[in-house]
Amino acid sequence: MSLIVQKYGGSSVANAEGIKRVAKRIVQTRKAGNDVVVVVSAMGDTTDELLDLAESVSPLPAGRELDMLLTAGERISMALLAMAIKGLGVDARSYTGSQAGMITDAKHGSARIVDVTPGRVREALDIGAVAIVAGFQGFNRGTGDITTLGRGGSDTTAVALAAALGADVCEIYTDVDGIFTADPRVVPSARKIDRITSEEMLELAAAGAKVLYIRAVEYARRHGVTLHVRSSFNNNEGTLVINPQDGETMEQPIIAGIAADLSEAKITVVGVPDIPGKAAQIFTIVASTDANIDMIVQNVSSAATGLADISFTLPKLEGAKVLHVLESRKDDVGFDSLQYDDQIGKLALVGAGMRTNAGVSAKLFTALFDAGINIEMISTSEIRISVVTRADTINEAVRVVHSAFDLDTEDVALVHGGTGR
Amino acid sequence: MSLIVQKYGGSSVANAEGIKRVAKRIVQTRKAGNDVVVVVSAMGDTTDELLDLAESVSPLPAGRELDMLLTAGERISMALLAMAIKGLGVDARSYTGSQAGMITDAKHGSARIVDVTPGRVREALDIGAVAIVAGFQGFNRGTGDITTLGRGGSDTTAVALAAALGADVCEIYTDVDGIFTADPRVVPSARKIDRITSEEMLELAAAGAKVLYIRAVEYARRHGVTLHVRSSFNNNEGTLVINPQDGETMEQPIIAGIAADLSEAKITVVGVPDIPGKAAQIFTIVASTDANIDMIVQNVSSAATGLADISFTLPKLEGAKVLHVLESRKDDVGFDSLQYDDQIGKLALVGAGMRTNAGVSAKLFTALFDAGINIEMISTSEIRISVVTRADTINEAVRVVHSAFDLDTEDVALVHGGTGR
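ok -> C-alpha cells follow
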C-alpha cells in the first residue's frame, strides 16, 4: 500500500462534470489500496472572478483581505470534491490550509511555508478516508491570519504535504501528458520525457517551461519528493521528476529538453565607465526594484573610450519600473543612455548529461548558424545553455535545435494534451 | 462612545455597488465615534448557487462538506466589505466564524451556539479597526470542523456577538423600514412599529412575520440585547425590539401587530376512538417525523359513535411525510381516515397589552364575522390569538382586523421598503 498525494489544477475541476471525473479517478486510486491525499485548486476561473470583484470594490485591496477572499475559491472546490467522492461510496474529508497544518510566514499574497503539521490529514487517512486539502493557502501562527502562497501555490502545497507525510509519490495532474522535450505546439515531433532529474526540471522551469512551478520543484528536490506529472484526462504514465542520490548516476540522454520564453525583454545600459564597482552599482539599483534579472552580459570595453555596455534580461512586466529607476540614477552611475528591447526570445537547452559531454555548445551554435538565426546573448550554467535571439525566430530556433540533438520522435499522436481525452 | 453591532443581509451586499454603499454607512458609524462590529451574510444568491453546485456533484451532500462549501459565501462578502472600508480610509479586519470565536455544537447545517469567545474581535476594536464577522457560521471544538447555524443564522451571529461583547445595540439592516403592524403589501395603511417587546416580536415571528428569525429574537431576549431593525437604504429610525426588565411595564398599545401565514396546511385525523391516550399516540407518531406542529384542535366526540376528529397545522413542506407515517400506523391507532387541506391561511394577533384587556378575542371574531370570513380553528397564548381561515380570505381578514384594532395610519408613504431607497 502506497501513500499518494495527488494535485488537481483548476482546469481539471472547472465544473461539476470535471469534479465528478476527478472524484472517480481518486476513488480508483483509493480502491486500488492506496492512502490518498488530494490537493485541489480553485475551480476554473474562480480566482480571476474573485480578483475582479476585489478590484470593483477597492482599487488596491489589502493583502490580508485579498487572501481571505481568494481562499474561498479552494474552499468551494475541495468541499464539492469531497461530496462527489462520498457520493461514490468512499469516505472523504476536506481541510483548509490551516486545518491541514500549512504554517506559513505572514507575507500575504506570497507566503512561504515554514512548517507542515498535517495531524488532521493523518487522522483522516487512519480511518480510511481520502483527505482533500485546499491548495495555495496557509496560516500564520503569529497573526492568526490566512495567507496564500502565490503563483503555483497549489503545486507547492502538494509537494510540502508529500514531504511531511513521507508520501511515495506526489502526482501533479494537468491537461498535458507530462513534460515534453519542447513545447509540442511549436515542435510537433516533441517527445514526452519519461524521467527527468529535478535539477534538469528546475532549469527547464526557470527557462520558461510552464507545466511545473520552480518553487514546487525546488521544494521537492530539497525534501527528496518524487513528482509524477501526468494528465487528468487519460491513464497514461506521465513524466517522473526524480532525485538521484549523491553519487548515483542516472542513465540518461545528454539533453533532457528545450524551453523557450518570449516573456522577457532586454535592457542595455550604454556607455558605462569601465571602472571597478560600476556593475555592482547598477545591479544594486536594479535589485532595489525587486525585479527578476536573468541573463547578464557585459561587452569588452573600448580602449579608446574607456566605456562598456551592460545588457540584461528581465520579465517585460518589470521593464518600465527598472528603466524608470535607472534613468533617475543616470548621473550617479555616469552612463550615456538606456536601450529597451522587448522583441527578444530566449532558448534554453537543458541536460545533466552535458556536464560530461563536450561539444554541446558548439553543436547548438552550429545548428542556429545553419538556420541563419543570429545569437545576441549567451549564458551557461553547469547543465544549461541559454541564448537570446530575435523573438520572431525563436520557434524556428527551437525546432532546429530539437532536431540537431536527435530529440524528435515519429510518434506525434502522443503529443500535447487537452480537454476531453 | 457606543459599541454597535450591525448585521447586513445578502440583499444589502448583493453586488459591488451594494458593498460600497454598506461600507460607507459603516464608515459613517465609525467616524461618529462608535466601535463597530459588522456581521455580514453571503452576497445575494451566492448560497443558492453553491447549493446548486453541491446538488450537481452529489444528490445528498455530506453535512460537514456542505457547511465547508456554504461558508465560502460569507468569506467572500466579508473580505470584500473589509477591503471597501479600508478603501475609505478606515481600518477593517474580516474574521471567519471560527476566528471570531463562534463556538457551536457539531450539528452540521443547524448548529447551535454554545460559547462566544470574541478575543480577536475585541483586539480589532482596541486598535480602532472595524471588525467584520462572517454570519451564519461557527466552529465545533470537539471535531475541529466548520459548522453553519441554519436559516437566519446571520441574525443569530449578530445577536450572539452583541451579547458577548456587551454591545449597546444590535442593528439588523434589511430592505424594509422596520417591523410593521401588518405586511404593508397586504395592508397599505400598516404602520411601522417604533418599539415592540421581544416577547411580542417572538410571537409575530412565530406567526409568520418574516423580518426577524425566531431564534435570533429568543437569543436577544435571553441575553437582554436590544435589537434595532432598520433599512440599509435610508437613515430612518426603524423598530426597536426591547426587553423590559421584570416588573417594568412599557406604555404600549394593546395590539402590537398582525401576522399572516400561508405556508401551512391542515391535517385532520378523522374518526379517532375517544379513549385516553389516543391523542398522545398520534402526536408521538407525528413527532417521530420531526415535523413542526403548530395549532392543534380536537372536536367534541360524538356520544353516538364514540369517535373524535383531531386537526393540526404544519408546514406544507412537511405534509407528505407526516401523512405517510400516519397512514402506515392507521391500524395501530384505529382512526378512519386522513384529510389534508393546504388551502388554509393563519392570522395571528399579537400584543402584550391583551393580557390586561378583556374583549380582544370578541373584537377579533366580530370583525371577521362582519366581513363574512369563517373561522376554522382558534388557538391562543397569553399575548397572541391565532385563527385559521380559508387561504383566499386571509388578506381580507388581515385588513379588517387591522382596521378593527385602530392600527391603520394615514401616512402610507412610509410603507414597505425596497431597493433603491
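The interface with chain B takes residues 16, 19-20, 23, 50, 53-54, 56-62, 64-66, 68-69, 71-73, 75-76, 78-84, 86-87, 92-94, 99, 120, 144 of chain A (CB under 8 Å).
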